[in-house]
Each structure stands twice: as C-alpha cells, then as structure tokens.
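ok so for the tutorial part 2 we go from a plain amino acid sequence to predicted structure tokens. step 1 is just haveing the sequence, like this:
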Amino acid sequence: LHWAGSVLDIIQCSIFKGVRHVFPVSTYATGKYKISEHDCVLSLPVELGPDGVNRVVEIQLNDDEQNQEMK
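step 2 — the prediction. this is what the tokens look like for a chain of 71 residues:
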C-alpha cells in the first residue's frame, strides 16, 4: 500500500502547491458526454489545482462508445 501514499502526496501537491496534474477522480458529470442528470458522478480525468477541479479532460468517444456509456 505504499503506492497509495505516493498518489495522495501527488494529489496533495496539486491542490496545496498549485502544481496542476490530471487524475482520474470522481466528479459530477452533468453536461459531459450527453449526460443531463444532475446527480450523476463518474470517475473522469480531471485537472486538479488549488481551487479543486479546474477542468474535466474530455476524451473523444466514438458513437458506439457513447451509446454504450448511456446504458
């Protein structure tokens, strides 16, 4: 479980020291990938910084992937 401490340290640096990194974390997905539900939370790649989630890094999905996601 030593890796968990390393990951938490990197996340902590992103938040407290302003070092921006992209992490897969759970965040609200409203408005992403044609999701309109207000209480939908997904693990998405996000850029973390001092203000929390700066932006969601959107991945281009083809039509099959998009349809599969909504099932």
